[in-house]
Every structure is written in structure tokens, then in C-alpha cells.
Amino acid sequence: MAHQTVIILDFGGQYNQLIARRVRECGVYCEVKSYTTPLAELRRMEPIGFILTGGPNSVYLETSPHVDPEIFSMGVPVLGICYGCQLMAHTLGGKVAAAQSDSAREYGKTETFYDASCPLFKGLPETGVSWMSHGDYMERVPEGFTLAARSKACPNVAIADVERGFYGVQYHPEVRHTENGVAMIRNFLYEICGAAGDWTMGDYKRTAVAAIREKVGGGRVLLALSGGVDSSVCAALLAEAVGEQLTCVFVDHGLMRKNEGDEVQAAFQNWAMNFVRVDAEDRFLGRLAGVSEPEQKRRIIGEEFIRVFEEEARRIGSVDFLAQGTIYPDVIESGAGDAAVIKSHHNVGGLPDCVDFKEIIEPLRLLFKDEVRQLGRELGLPEYLVSRQPFPGPGLAIRVIGDLTREKLYALREADAVYREEIASAGLDRAVSQYFAVLTNTRSVGVMGDGRTYDYTLALRAVTTSDFMTADWARIPYDVLDRVSTRIVNEVPGINRICYDITSKPPATVEWE
């Protein structure tokens, strides 16, 4: 079944992946493509609409990214957001210039007045708050466009050419700060593009299964199974697609949470697939000895993972494909094209240049975490697996700050287990999106009994989020934190101080390294 498709052309803005998330929430399939994608490829996708994203550049500079003008001759509706709005105006004969005064620049929450007769704002209030982030402004709008929204500082907050289906907004409707922003995106999809809303996670499952079968054919697949949500859902999807052609390899690298290796084996050993557990703790810890820099840790672990899989593949026999549970935030944070690398993920930026497989399969690569959970439910996975706490591929290696030792790993496992146990006992395990402990590289003086201690500081981290692109620190009750702190310093040797991380994302990331 072919789905209606909206193409999101990416110009490097910080909220671009959220646009895709909002479109999918509206039941419409979309793909994010680079602005450099050839027009012929875009035409073959037969989109019902384009969305031009925000970006950090100024459209009037020759070095800034631009779009093929033929996009506007395809007879397909276009929505430009922030930079995308200014790019559309610039391309179609308008004029964009740098704001000459602070009053013409707009950042943050801004009171905005909308023309309710515009299809983009159909059924919405005439006044609301929008989230602005622009230093340029449209000095002259193109011929055929009307002004559809304004603010006190800017008369052309939104522009519209209803006849051709071209709309532009200088704010960000995809962020939660913009009131009715998702409703505006929905209006573009349904009122302007004529979307039928034919995409669901059930559809994604069927499409993905068919695509995997076509790609794999009679070949064999090796999956890196960590037991986390992403790799578990990936395993179930691959099992449904290719059955016994799949071998799941669980590498026990000695960097798992307490008892997790045994739990993973118990959960998957009876599945209708080939399950292999590899004890590689000594191998990994040997490679990581003395390594403190987090990116180096990730790359070592990524390369070692691949080498272990290559060895297992040779033992198994002919294996054609390596599968991974890579998801969209992994890809985004590892950087692509002109995007900045926030941190490389061991299964994305950490891959070695050459691997001993025909191809790497990443069937979850376009999904956000909550979508992965939805897919898991569609596949019939038990809720305890679908709702499992997220765990990074490098494991505790990036939750021990500085160099790794078995003693540090033991202390962190025990402390993390106490933390997770108390969060669950308080009934907060579903309310908090992710929570874990970090063993810092800071030591401080403490007193236990009548003696002086000089031990490590442990940091507790907990966040709430809908998509893991942004996150807020969780307001865990003080009495819960008190129980966690008391238990850890009494039960776990080597830790004498507990801190709670109250930093959101951004500016921080969810993980510390």
C-alpha cells in the first residue's frame, strides 16, 4: 500500500525533526530530506505537500542553502517555516533583509494576531502566542501573497498565496510554546494538502516487514540485541519479517545494569529465533582500560561490537546483513550533512569504516522513541519490554565519568539498582521518562561513623520528555530522593555523596557523556 507523503526539506534548523514528529502525530506519512536532494528524486516520491524547515542562515547570502525553484512549479502546496518562509519569499520575488532594529527582531514567545479566514488558521482563535526565532524579516512579500498574521513588531508574521497553496510563517508551529501550532500543521495537511490520514503504526509495521523481506530475500541477518526497547522491537520486527533467517547476538560486554545480562537471556532465549550470548566482558574492559574521553569510549565500543559480530557471523556461517536498533534521535545527535555532532552513537557515528557485511539494516531509523514503543505494541511485545528504561548502547561506560574499573562499575550497578527500585516503589516509573545514576569522577571528604572517608560523588538523573529531542528534569519528591540517598551511602561502598541533576535538554543532553 502506497501512503500519501509529505516531504520535509531540511535546512539545518534546531527543531526540524519535531516537524516530522508533528506531521506523524496527525496521521500523515512524511520523510525528512536534505535541501540538496535532486528534484527528480523528490518528484518520484509524488508528495502531496512540502514543508521547508527553519535554519540558521540568511537567505540573501550566496553561501546560504537554497531550494530548486521548480519546487514551486509542481502544483504541490508548500509550507515554509521561519527560514523556509523567508526562502520561499526570496525565491518567488520578495525581498528579505536583516532587521535594522531590535524591535524588528523577534525571539521567544510573541503575541500574534491571525486572519481566521486563512485556511492555515481555519477554526482557530484570532489571537495566540507563537514562538519566534528570527533576526531577518520580509521587507517585501512576493506578488500574489497576502498577509495572514501579524505581531506588534512585524506586519507579516504569516503570508499566504491561497490560489497556489503556498503558506509561510516566521514562527515555529512545531514547538509546544506556539499555541495551536499542531492544529495549524494539521490544517496545512488536511485543509490545504488534502491528506487522508492513511498512516498509522500498524501501516508502518506492514510496510517495514515487506521492505525487510524484499531487501533480505533468502539472506541471513545478524542483529545486535541489547535487550533495550529499540533492539527488542527491532528483533520482533525482523523475526516477523524473516523468522529463522535471523540470529540475535547479545554481547555481554560487562557494561550492563545489575542482573541485566541474565534478564535479557531469559526474555529472548525462547523466541522463534536464533539467540546467542557472547561473554565479552574481559575483552571490552581490556580495550577501555585507561580511556577517559567519552567519544573515544564510544568509538572503541562501536568498533569492538562490530568485530564481535563479525566473528560470530563467521562461526554461524554465511551472514549477509547486520541489523541495528538505531532510532531517529541517534542519527540526529550523531550529525548528518551540515548538522553538528552532539555525540556520536556507537551504532551510528561510532561504526568503523569497513564492516564485514553486505549491508547494515536499520528498520527503526526514522522513528522516535515513543513511536518505537507503539510499534512494539503492534508487534505484540509484552509491556515490560516495551516500557523498559532506555539504556545507551555503550552502557555504563558512559555513566562512569573518567576511566573504567571493575570497582567503579560494581558501585554504579548497585547504586543504579537502588535508585530504580525506589523510583518504582514510589510509583514514579511511568511518570518519569528516563532515570539513572552516574558515577562522577569527583571525590570528596565525608564522615561515616567516627571515620573520615574520601569517596566518589554519585549523580542522579531523571527527565520527562515526549520525544527525547527536548527534555525537562523530573520533579522527584524530596522524600523519595532522601530514601535513595540514604540507602546508597549505606549500602554501596565507595560512594559518600549524592547529587541530583536539575538541568534540562537543551542545554544539557539526557546522558552525561
What does this structure look like?
With 513 residues, this protein is an alpha/beta fold. The chain is built from 14 helices and 20 strands. The strands form four sheets. The chain has a nine-stranded mixed sheet with strand order 2-1-3-4-11-10-9-6-7, with helices on both faces. The protein has a five-stranded parallel sheet with strand order 14-13-12-15-16, with helices on both faces. Strand 15 (321-323), helix 10 and strand 16 (359-361) form a beta-alpha-beta unit. Helix 6 (229-242) crosses helix 11. The longest helix has 23 residues, at 294-316. It is globular and about 75 Å long. Mean pLDDT is 88; it is low at 334-354.
- List how many beta strands DSSP finds: 20
Strand content: 15-25%
- SS element count, helices: 14
Radius of gyration: 25 Å
